[in-house]
Amino acid sequence: MAKKTIAIDGPAGAGKSTVARLVAKRLNYLYIDTGAMYRAITYKVMQQKIPLDDHHALTELAQNTNIKLINRNGRNLVFCDEHDVTEQIRDPEVSRNVSLVSLVPGVRQKMVQLQREMARDGGVVMDGRDICTVVLPDADCKIFLTASVEERAWRRRKEFEVKGYPISWESVKEDIMQRDLLDSQRAVSPLVKSPDAYLIDTTGLTIDTVIKRILNLCLGDD
Ligand code: C5P
After folding, report:
1. Is residue 207 one of the residues assigned to a domain?
2. Which string of DSSP letters, residue by residue, matches 17-47?
3. Which of 34, 149, 172 to mutate for ligand 1's pocket (most ligand atoms within 8 Å of CB)?
4. For site-directed labelling of 11, which of 97, 103, 117, 152 has its Cα 20 to 30 A away?
5. Is residue 182 situated within a structural domain?
6. What pTM does this model have?
7. Ligand 1: centre distance to CA 99 (Å)
8. Which domain holds residue 57?
9. 122 appears as a binding residue in the annotation
């Protein structure tokens, strides 16, 4: 069967990464986590102490940064200019700043260029905010994943806890709402459901159910 391109968009904590990774594994496709790429550039911006409102400096930095997503022994690693930043980019401080970096048009231009190169040969599952609308408008299958903000906050809190960041549910919920607002109201490539994307509300659904639904929608596979 010809290798397809599967695009998945949705707000923070909707389950995109977990589901996209497992769908890719099941199909033996490449998984491309575009959120990890925006987090990696944000981490570099923070390391270099560049003010987040200096869009000129952020654009220049992005143009001179190379980000690679590598699967090594089943682990998805994120490299920023040869440095492994897989763990660092999950820091809550990166989560708080990433939406301010990703609204900069010059930063997005570089990331979209890298993302299209990665998807060039098909056989990819790519997740993010603007994949169906901007990065891969001709994707074979488009999905918009969402869930109630309460459930998304529980999921993210659990992830932070596992990684050793004990944060209250209220604070995670506040961050998620703030990020959703910035992501959906920015001028360039806002988070919006593409009219031709299938909507899946994952509230109360198991991961397995969501995966089966996506495989069914994209490949007609049960
Ligand atoms: O998916 P994740 O929550 O890791 O994404 C982190 C942030 O990166 C998002 O809140 C958004 O600001 C940005 N992002 C984006 N476009 C994408 C993927 C992520 O602007 N395609």
Report:
1. yes
2. HHHHHHHHHHHTPEEEEHHHHHHHHHHHHHH
3. 34
4. 117
5. yes
6. 0.94
7. 7
8. 5-211
9. no
